[in-house]
Amino acid sequence: MKVFKACFKITRRHIISLLIYFSAFTLLAVLLSFSMKPADNTDFEKTRPTYSLISRDGETPAVLGLRAFLDTVGDRVELEDDKKALQDATFFHASDYILILPQGFSESLLTDSPLEAETVTTPDSAGGYYMDIQVNQYLRLFQAFHLAAPESNLTELAAKTSDAVSAEAQVETVSFGKQQPVPEQAAMYFQVLPYILLVLIISCVSTIMMPFQRPDLRMRNMCSPLPALKINLQLILFGAAVSFLAWLVLILTGFGLYGSSLAGIDFRSLLLLFGNSLALTAVCLSIAMLTGSFIKTSSSQNAVANIFSLACSFLGGVFVPLEMLGEGVLRVARLVPTYWYSMALKKICALTSYSPETLEPIWKDMLVQVGFAAAFFCISLVIYKVKNTSEKSFSRVQTELNA
Amino acid sequence: MFWNIYSKRLISTLRDKSTLVWTWVFPLVMATLFYFAFTSLDSVDQFHTIPAAVVAEGGEQEAQAFRQVLESVSEQGEDQLFSLQTTASREEAEQLLDQGKIDGFFMTDNQEPTLFVKKNGLNQTIMKAFLDQYLQDQEAVITIIHESPEQAGKLQTLFSRESFTKEISLAENPPTNKINYFYALIAMVCLYGSFQGLTSVSCLQANLSPLGARRCLSPVSRFVMVSADLLAGVTAHMLSLLVLLAYLILVLNVNFGGKTALILLTSLAGCVTGVSFGALVSVCTKMKEAAKTAVLVSVSLACCFLAGLMVSGINYTVAKNAPVLAWINPAARITDAFYCLYYYDTYDQYFLNILVLLLMAAVMTGLTAIFLRRQQYESI
């Protein structure tokens, strides 16, 4: 196990970079899973779009009544009456719907043709559409009450309208005897895991593999009595140990964050989640071994780590759900291992029973990942072999002290 | 001598294959990927006709009236709310719901219409809002007839006006979910200019590379050497940014608001900030080059994450909740500058962003200069 021991020595020499990668990417995993959309509930709960009400008409009973009603259907976001603040909130979806009531709006409600309120929303947004329905409904009833009893003042009309809009319909949730086994937040954490695993494992494993790529070292190793296959297997073994450590750190972090909600789910689902992420870890290791065969400098190492991880993540539905990708992109995505990870994860999260029929598609997705890993390992072994027999790969011998 | 060093450094950068992949090819690959991955991103939040069903049970007048209202909002046209199916029984509707063919179904049971759904969602909420409105209108009619019976014949007129709002647009260019990803990508490429800074300093410091040791002995003014090296780094990196911008604007048709000179100014400011950041990290620590690279990659990625590279809109959240963090994040400033050009019709915030970027670059270059100044080595 000489090579394995040498890997330990290299690890010790690069411990600072490895620690930086581990801590930075674990932190990124936490931040990413937090920044994704929050969970839904199993009982029916209204989706509450965000809205802002800018009243240039002061705090009249009509405005107060409208605001109180909108508070029951949406989440209010306070915004300044400033063009830039409104622009920012619309662009970044901080507020799905901005309602601007012009000066004299309330008084105009007591006439036959009230002033129009201005609205700002992202074009054709469903949240904006919903809030617009609600605003129009309130104002329509307000005007109906005014036309029916023109002598009523704003306070009386607001009270009547508020009474009328308090009527709510019954909603029943049909459960079909199914329940979602994996909490949404924990599922989010597992969804962002491929990016972190990929970038972390490629960065760490290639840091350790790089010195073995130096032509002078390779020439020396080839002269040694140790067969090339054994050297490569020991390298893979060490890479597997590092990858497993990365996986373990990330899983433990996940437990630290979402332990309470994960503890409640069926242990079989938990095992499937672990199995799926381990299958992906094997893929990450194989990619790291493959890329390690042509990485020579630390900057190209980072380029490769980022190209592979970001490309696989965007195509594999890690950052943007697969449903949002176009049909053409999805066809390409099938060639990416993270796609199969995301598919398996989706199926695990939707599992309602553990019969062989329901588990079969999940096994298939995991097998595809293992297949990817095997293919990448084989390709990397072939590349190592070709490189060792080709004179060209030894032509540039580095002389720098710190290469 | 300045031009000599400048041109040599430029040529050596352009001949470095790994840098070429890193700063020239990688951004183009990412941009292409973003372009294809985000094709339908904007349509996700848009309103689409909701698939729904109504159970045709109950022949009472009440149930029939409700079904008529439902059919009227399901008529094909611009204002179509539901694509409605009528089922003979509740079981049939439940089957459709379980298969995901509809988002919910209505049923009039004991005269009160009820909504049945499988899960939460905006479509289901809009269905509930429709039902709520139906009941609220009923409630209002009862109140009006109770208080003013003489209005009973004029009810249609009382409820005739449908719209009280008018949608306005605050900017010339429409808001979009996609564009921020591209801006954050450019910010990332700008920050990757730090590798140029790192290489420049490594090749200048006697304790960092054999080349640096040799150059320290050369009879050239330190100032000329440092400035020529860093400037060549900026030039090389700016060239890669120009290629990326040309690709984004001419091939992928990404909208930057059409202000070419200011787009170039932003890229240049970002590029200078990136290079000076790399130079500072390289000069102020005694770590190995791999460790310094790790620092640069981690910091750059963290900055880009906070600028919205992975999750769009996070830059807005950070700016609202931790404004200081947003202002000291160069990636967020670069993204925000591009956003200002795309979305604002004024330039004050844009120039503030550029000023902050240049200030950061000046501080980092100043610190680098202090570290580089009059260094002597007893042993290397």
Automatic annotation (TrEMBL), chain A:
Residue ranges of the TM segments: 15-36, 192-212, 233-258, 270-291, 303-322, 366-386
Q: Where in the cell is it found?
A: Cell membrane
Keywords of the record, alphabetical order, are: Cell membrane, Membrane, Transmembrane, Transmembrane helix
Record-linked InterPro entries: ABC-2_transporter_component (IPR051449), ABC2_TM (IPR013525)
Where's the ABC-2 type transporter transmembrane domain?
Answer: 20-381
Q: Which organism is it from?
A: Cuneatibacter caecimuris
Question: Membrane topology type, per the record?
Answer: Multi-pass membrane protein
Q: Does the keyword Transmembrane apply?
A: yes
> Single GO cellular component annotation?
plasma membrane
NADP as UniProt keyword: no
Q: Name one GO molecular function term.
A: ABC-type transporter activity
* Alphabetized Pfam families for the sequence: ABC2_membrane_3 (PF12698)
Q: What is this protein called?
A: ABC-2 type transport system permease protein
Automatic annotation (TrEMBL), chain B:
Give the organism's phylogenetic lineage: Bacteria, Bacillati, Bacillota, Clostridia, Lachnospirales
ABC-2 type transporter transmembrane domain span: 17-369
The transmembrane residues are 20-38, 181-204, 224-250, 262-283, 295-318, 350-372
Query: What organism does the UniProt record list as the source?
Result: Cuneatibacter caecimuris
Listed PANTHER family: MEMBRANE COMPONENT OF ABC TRANSPORTER YHHJ-RELATED, TRANSPORT PERMEASE PROTEIN
Please give the InterPro entries that the UniProt record associates with this protein. ABC-2_transporter_component, ABC2_TM
The molecule here is called ABC-2 type transport system permease protein
The protein's UniProt keywords, in alphabetical order, are: Cell membrane, Membrane, Transmembrane, Transmembrane helix
What kind of membrane protein is this, topologically?
Multi-pass membrane protein
Q: Where does this protein reside within or beyond the cell?
A: Cell membrane
GO CC terms? plasma membrane
Q: Give GO MF terms, alphabetically.
A: ABC-type transporter activity
Source domain of life: Bacteria
